[in-house]
Design goal:
The protein is α/β, with parallel strands linked by helices. It contains 21 helices and 30 strands. The protein is globular, with a radius of gyration of 30 Å.
Length: 727
């Protein structure tokens, strides 16, 4: 039924043509016909969905006179068949026929097999335009609508000019009632865990404690699939490109692709979920305004969505939020309120103000519509790379991975969906292991975009059912991944945006993966101050630089002999030494190496010469603090070492010292800003054994997170005068 001049060989024709799909003047059983209008322009395929009443004669399209009649569709989405067929399928009981003389109806029926070329779904977006990269000819529609059954004829018309086509917008596609998820009572106590309670080997997936799948779980997944297919995101978001990474692929051995969500208008995927949630609000709710609590990407997503929908938005941010992020939100027209030193305090204020002003609170991740909005990332990946085998997703609260898994596991259950978390923020890993939502008592804020104390209840339910597993990566591995992406395309990701890349590298190397894998590069809102730390740790994460601690005799000539033993094939990149009164000297240094094998040879050579050597490359205290300090052990009695997280705001350090001084003697300090919301400060404090319990209570009263580092091997050898290497 398609004229020859619209076939594939004319896909690059400069003129613009339109295929109008309209329903007859008769309703389906519900009394409403679903008419799909498809407008083909150069390079893109734009799909519109609107409701047409039974009495309507035609959909106004503003086109020229009829040229030839092709086909028409009236069908409603059947997500059940989507699940069964693993591809988009529609039902409607219609017929496919040829029109005669431009007005006759067809009577024959034809069923077509699903094509593997082109798009294989319709993405209704409530009458708003959904743009997706697809083939540029009418014939490529066949690959997308093979499973449709047609009911009536339509006409093909020429558009006078691209600007002449005025498409009448229809109302939003209605979804069934929101799905329900198990959630604890408000007074329920969450299981509290520490990040170090669960340490994983490199590339190892955590255990997922799953429940038996019930009928309601299948129905709920059916809702999410339909919600993702009809999500309202492309009014503000772009379909981000999928870039192949040749250098990293050669290094790892797998075909690695980056899903470039860092190229979104707000440099993050967060606007997808925020807009999809807000566009569903009633006009009355939009008039009252929205409010959210966020320190970064979600704030910008809500601000942009509010600007698009022309509603008032209040963004509550912690007082420690970097100025660059505050300014970015204000530039989008939102009102910024700085409140609280941590996210919990900020969120409490936002919810209280929400009730007071009758605004709508837009959560960052724990909401079905937000999950559906984020799930459009997975929909794009499956279409852009049909041969994908594994998708690596950064995990914070779990909204992104829940949405991606909901779509991918419905359409392509053979594709693995793996979550990646920082070692110091592994809330989802531990929650899936225990089979319940757990809360971290502390969290490492280096990758602040995924530094979440507990995952959302909605997201946990979906991840427990669908995700293949969650793995963790170290801070230096994240920094190495940022460098890898920069080497590929000269783009600089934020730490949270590079988490999935770090996970893909570790997993593919550990398991020998050689197929197509995708890593979601989720954001690029990098604080410039943090680049210093990233540059410092990147080589350690890629295993091209190692930090070592060696003990050499305190005699003339021992240093020269030590350098000779390290080897001429290894280059020193850093060296710290301080003479001491003892018979031995501790040397902290860094060397460049081609890989683990060369480093192991160097260490073995030193140990064979009776020079005790320890590899401190993965010790965070050494990397952040001790390698930058000069001096040595002073023999101070009762000296203890603590690492304290102090908020990056004026007066925060003074508040801490009010609890410590002058009661306790501070013997050592080290601090350097890394651009985060909290600073890592190393303190040496003299505490007599009899006063230790009182001192711990004093530390607790500060309200700051702290960690006792007194038994850290590097500190004991270099400054504490305690345990020696090899003991």
């Amino acid at each position: 039924a398609v004229p020859h001049r619209y076939r594939r060989q004319h896909r690059d024709a400069p003129s613009t043509r339109a295929l109008l799909l309209r329903s007859r003047r008769r309703s389906l059983r519900s009394g409403q016909g679903l008419a799909r209008r498809v407008l083909r322009t150069s390079g893109f395929l734009k799909i519109h969905v609107c409701d047409v009443s039974a009495s309507s004669s035609a959909v106004p399209f503003g086109l020229a006179e009829e040229q030839s009649s092709v086909m028409a569709a009236a069908a409603s989405i059947s997500c059940g068949s989507l699940l069964a067929a693993k591809t988009a399928s529609f039902s409607g009981g219609g017929k496919l026929g040829r029109s005669k003389g431009g007005g006759g109806g067809g009577s024959s029926r034809e069923e077509c097999r699903t094509s593997r070329k082109g798009s294989r779904y319709f993405n209704g977006d409530g009458g708003r335009r959904t743009t997706c990269n697809a083939a540029n000819s009418v014939f490529d529609l066949v690959g997308m609508v093979k499973s449709l059954r047609w009911r009536a004829p339509v006409v093909v018309r020429d558009v006078v000019s691209p600007g002449a086509a005025v498409v009448a917008q229809g109302p939003s596609v209605s979804l069934p009632s929101m799905p329900t998820h198990a959630s604890p009572a408000a007074t329920a106590v969450r299981r509290e865990v520490l990040p170090e309670d669960m340490k994983m080997r490199e590339g190892e997936l955590g255990v997922v404690k799953r429940n038996v799948m019930r009928a309601e779980d299948s129905e709920r997944l059916n809702w999410y699939l339909r919600a993702i297919l009809t999500a309202n995101v492309y009014d503000v978001a772009i379909e981000s490109p999928l870039d192949f990474a040749p250098r990293l692929s050669e290094l790892v051995g797998a075909k690695i692709h980056f899903k470039r969500e860092d190229l979104q208008p707000v440099k993050s995927f967060k606007l997808r979920g925020a807009y999809n949630r807000m566009v569903q609000l009633s006009p009355e709710a939009l008039a009252r305004g929205v409010i959210c609590s966020s320190a970064g990407n979600h704030a910008q997503g809500v601000a942009l969505a509010a600007k698009k929908l022309q509603c008032d938005a209040v963004i509550v941010m912690p007082v420690t939020t970097p100025a660059i992020k505050v300014d970015a939100v204000r530039a989008l027209g939102a009102t910024v309120v700085l409140k609280g030193e941590n996210y919990d305090a900020t969120q409490a204020y936002a919810k209280a103000r929400c009730e007071e002003e009758e605004r709508t609170f837009v959560p960052p991740f724990d909401d079905p519509l937000i999950v559906a909005g984020q799930g459009t990332v997975g929909m794009e990946v499956v279409r852009q790379l049909p041969g994908v085998e594994i998708i690596f997703v950064p995990v914070g609260g779990g909204g992104l991975i829940a949405g991606i898994a909901a779509y991918v596991k419905s359409i392509r259950p053979d594709v693995k969906v793996i979550g990646v978390e920082p070692e110091g923020a592994n809330a989802m890993l531990q929650s899936l292991y225990h089979g319940e939502v757990c809360r971290l008592t502390k969290v490492d804020g280096f990758a602040d975009g995924v530094a979440v104390r507990q995952p959302g209840d909605v997201n946990f339910d979906l991840c427990q059912q669908l995700v293949d597993g969650v793995m963790t990566v170290r801070t230096d591995q994240i920094c190495a991944a940022i460098k890898d992406v920069f080497n590929e395309n000269r783009s600089i990701l934020e730490p949270a945006g590079a988490v999935a890349v770090a996970g893909a590298k570790a997993y593919c190397k550990a398991h020998g993966v050689t197929g197509n894998v995708v890593a979601i590069t989720s954001g690029a809102n990098m604080n410039f101050d943090r680049l210093r730390v990233v540059s410092q740790l990147a080589d350690s994460g890629s295993k091209t630089e190692a930090t070592l601690l060696s003990i050499i005799p305190e005699t003339n000539g021992s240093f020269k002999r030590f350098v000779e033993l390290v080897g001429t094939d290894v280059n020193f990149t850093e060296f710290k030494y301080r003479i001491s009164d003892s018979a031995e000297a501790a040397v902290l240094y860094s060397v460049s190496c081609s890989g683990p094998a060369q480093l192991a040879t160097c260490v073995a050579r030193l140990r064979a010469a009776n020079i005790l050597t320890e590899d401190l490359t993965e010790d965070s205290t050494t990397q952040i603090h001790l390698r930058h300090m000069v001096g040595g052990a002073t023999g101070i009695a009762d000296e203890r070492c603590y690492k304290v997280e102090i908020p990056e705001r004026a007066g925060a350090l003074d508040t801490f010292l009010e609890f410590m001084s002058p009661k306790y003697t501070i013997t050592m300090t080290h601090y350097r800003s890394d651009g985060g919301q909290k600073g890592q400060v190393l303190f040496g404090i003299q505490v007599p054994a009899a006063e230790f319990a009182a001192f711990e209570e004093c530390l607790e009263s500060t309200g700051y997170t702290y960690e006792d580092m007194t038994k850290n091997k590097a500190f004991s050898v270099l400054y504490g005068g305690g345990a020696r290497l090899g003991v």
